[in-house]
Design goal:
This protein has about 230 residues and is an alpha+beta fold. It contains 3 helices and 8 strands; from the N terminus they run αααββββββββ. A hairpin with a 3-residue loop joins strand 6 and strand 7 (about 195-205).
Length: about 230
């Protein structure tokens, strides 16, 4: 619907320019020309702007935005509880994300899958992880195209850790637990089809038996907007 209104504004601007240049309008006085010129300039200005987000009252199915994209993810973890696996370090990986408006221009539901490659956390300990995340995000427009994001949700992390015990024997453990997360982010939408920006999140495990009790994560994403 927004694209239709944009096209209508452009069409009206072109029509007014055409009539303003015709002989009939050339006979009008200078005051009439000034009046029409102001209208044309206003329409041209509006046609070049990204349309503002629709109000809650005027929101309909045509205004719903869907986002899908990829990104780079970094997670700083601290393994505790079992001295054989005690270590901390940075995991690096890639992410796939999907989001959709929840019938409001500032409320989105988002889902993310992340895959972290195996990284050395100490001389003897290596870890890799996979995340599945669902969250609810409030996205507030700060300026033209720029948005501030705050959200919360749930994450399932599947952690694969290998190490050596006190005798030097190789040991291995798989750890999984649900976690709560809190997110802050900022991003910018370019035109109608591209959104990019970083997110910072804090994750805390809901299970005291998990090796990975908490982490601080940073994600850089590039999303296509539909």
């Amino acid at each position: 619907m927004n694209s239709k209104f944009q096209g209508l504004k452009t069409f009206l601007a072109a029509t007014l320019v055409f009539f303003a240049a015709s002989p009939a309008f050339a006979e009008e006085d200078s005051e009439s020309f000034t009046h029409w010129d102001e209208i044309v300039r206003g329409l041209r200005s509006n046609a070049q702007e990204i349309p503002a987000a629709p109000s809650e009252e005027g929101y309909n199915m045509d205004d719903i935005q869907i986002q899908a994209g990829v990104g780079a993810s970094f997670s700083y973890i601290n393994l505790v509880g079992d001295p054989n696996y005690a270590a901390s370090g940075l995991l690096k990986g890639v992410s796939l994300q999907f989001g959709i408006d929840l019938f409001h221009p500032e409320i989105q539901a988002e889902g993310t899958f992340r895959n972290f490659t195996s990284e050395s956390l100490s001389k003897t300990t290596k870890a890799q992880a996979r995340d599945f995340e669902l969250r609810l995000v409030h996205s507030k427009r700060l300026s033209h195209g720029t948005r501030f994001r705050v959200g919360t949700g749930l994450m399932a992390r599947y952690l694969d850790v290998s190490s050596r015990d006190s005798s030097g024997q190789s040991i291995h453990k798989q750890d999984s637990s649900p976690s709560a997360l809190f997110l802050l982010g900022v991003g910018r939408q370019f035109g109608r089809s591209l959104f990019l920006g970083p997110d910072l999140s804090y994750r805390t495990s809901l299970s005291r038996e998990s090796l990975d009790q908490n982490s601080v994560d940073v994600h850089f994403k590039v999303n296509a907007v539909f």
